[in-house]
Amino acid sequence: MERKFEIDSKIQGYVFDESTKNSLFKLAHNNIIDSIDMPIASGKEAVTFLGHLNENAIVAKIYKVSTSKFKNMDKYIKGDYRFKKVSKDKRDIFMVWASKEYKNLTLALRNNVSCPIVVAKELNVLIMSFIGEGDYPFPQLSKMKDFDFDIVYPQIIENYAKLLYGAKIVHADFSAYNILINPDTQKIYIIDFGQAVIYSHPKSKDFLKRDIMSITDFLNRKFRKMNITYEKVLEDLKIKKEELYGRNNKSWTQ
Questions:
Q1: What gap in Å lies between CA 141 and CA 215, rounded to an integer?
Q2: Which of 61, 135, 234, 250 could form a disulfide with 126 if both were Cys (CB 3.0 to 4.6 A apart)?
């Protein structure tokens, strides 16, 4: 029997060109998604939607091939040995971008980073686990009025250390906007891995520096008496690396 797939009529104007619809119908046919119901986030390169499979909440991240205003995508792709031959066609670049996020999430998950579980990819559509409760996504760390530094900061260090020294990738867009937090347990989840680069990327050190500065500046604004330095965050990452992987783990950040 043909599987029924539904797109809420109120959101069809977002990013659902024929190619995207065909991708969604294919995913539905493969029993990966039943419906697309409402947008939960919109960024430069994609819109993230709440979807469902058998009444269970899931996420569909759809890259805006025709309407995106995100520029300079190539600087995150060039130098990545996984994507050597990429044309300058906008559609092709977004297909690579979707593949890049899929691969980066897969690497992160293999190294026990707290992040969405990637389920499937079809062209410019990425299906992931839903981070939230019921149909309500957990808030971004940036929107939390209060949280416990002693609970959250160690998680930030541990997860980024696993990303950096285990998966050997740099997030390249790490900020409080790309961290979700469970308000009850204060467990964090890192999201948005499209810009993440492998450690051998020519700009990886620049992106790492930017990541460290971004999260450190945020924490200093939240906890003014802490006076956290960039050097302390980097040192804490190295200490966590030794705890997780031992002293013999070779790293380009040493």
A1: 11
A2: 61
